[in-house]
Design goal:
The chain has about 325 residues and is an alpha/beta fold. The chain is built from ten helices and ten strands. The chain has helices spanning about 30-40, 60-70, 95-110, 130-140, 155-170, 190-200, 240-260, 260-270, 285-295, 300-310, and strands at about 5, 10-15, 15-20, 45-50, 75-80, 115-120, 145-150, 175, 200, 280. The two termini are about 40 Å apart. The protein binds NADP nicotinamide-adenine-dinucleotide phosphate (NAP).
Amino acid sequence: MDYRNLGRAGVKVSPLWLGTAYFGTRIPEDSAIALVHAALDAGLNVVDTANVYSQPKGYSEEIVGRAIHDRRDRVVLATKVYNTMGDGPNDRGNSRYHIMEQVHASLRRLNTDRIDLYQLHRPDPDVPIEETLCTLEDLRRQGKILYFGTSKFAGWQLCEALWTSDRLGLAPIVSEQPEYSLVDRSIEAEVLPLTRKYGIGVVPFSPLGGGWLTGKYRRGETAPADSRFAGRGMDFAGDVYAPTFDALEGLEAMAAARGVTLSQFALAWLLAQPGVTAPIVGPRTLAQLQDNLGALDVSLTEEECAAIDEIVPPAAELPG
Ligand SMILES: NC(=O)c1ccc[n+]([C@@H]2O[C@H](COP(=O)([O-])OP(=O)(O)OC[C@H]3O[C@@H](n4cnc5c(N)ncnc54)[C@H](OP(=O)(O)O)[C@@H]3O)[C@@H](O)[C@H]2O)c1
């Protein structure tokens, strides 16, 4: 396994991470635990969860805690804070109050004494970044968290976080978790140039577009009954999705020419992008996990990446 540093942090992480957003909802607890064990046995070492995941909120963290309790020393454990956890005015966001309350709740649910990567699930426009970063730094010094990062921050917000840490003598954020895949290349405009320049790890979520890049959704057909998009009333015969299917069918032909699945091809493309640390996959079954792992054996050529750019154009760097 090609373990790599998480941005400029010293910790080594696997080139794929296991996501847990559907633990306890679409993925029953026993299947979820089997997925964690299979991923760790295959050499993945990061499990990504969040306080808000599952129903009731927090159940995904509880499942992860049970899955890793006898193998904690093999796991880099990542979770998140920001989203609404209750009805009160302070039950959400990146305030000192809410983070301090939630970090202890996450530690309890995860049944562990430290979180290895604590991520701000979203930027919070109501809270000064100084307040948030000082709180994370306090938790880091207490050893309750080892590293901290962000998710869905804009380029300017990442820059603000970096200069604030620098100005106040705090440890910097080590990673950003954006959406990034062959169905959404928008972070190439501002976020990726910044993360590359400043050595921030990039851990894309929904690297298969939630399922678009698996080939299970077909032009003119309804979503398969057991799929994530089933029952959403998406009209795959209509004009709305025609450009998506044009691109998917082009990518699928390229994957077939390589003898790999579309999902492996799409993950291999992400792994080939400079500055990407590790896509976070969200397999629902062991078979899907095995398929996703196969991407680690696929390396795309420059010619293939150029041909992909013709099918799914890169986002223009801003300002254009
Ligand atoms: N920071 C954030 O705001 C944020 C947001 C979203 C996700 N995340 C993180 O990223 C993780 C992954 O996100 P994601 O689940 O959207 O990732 P994804 O890899 O884009 O989509 C995974 C889904 O695609 C389908 N799939 C995967 N492999 C397949 C295969 N070989 N054949 C057929 N179908 C396959 C499955 O859906 P079916 O159920 O249809 O089979 C699976 O649940 C989450 O668990 C979470 O940890 C973070």
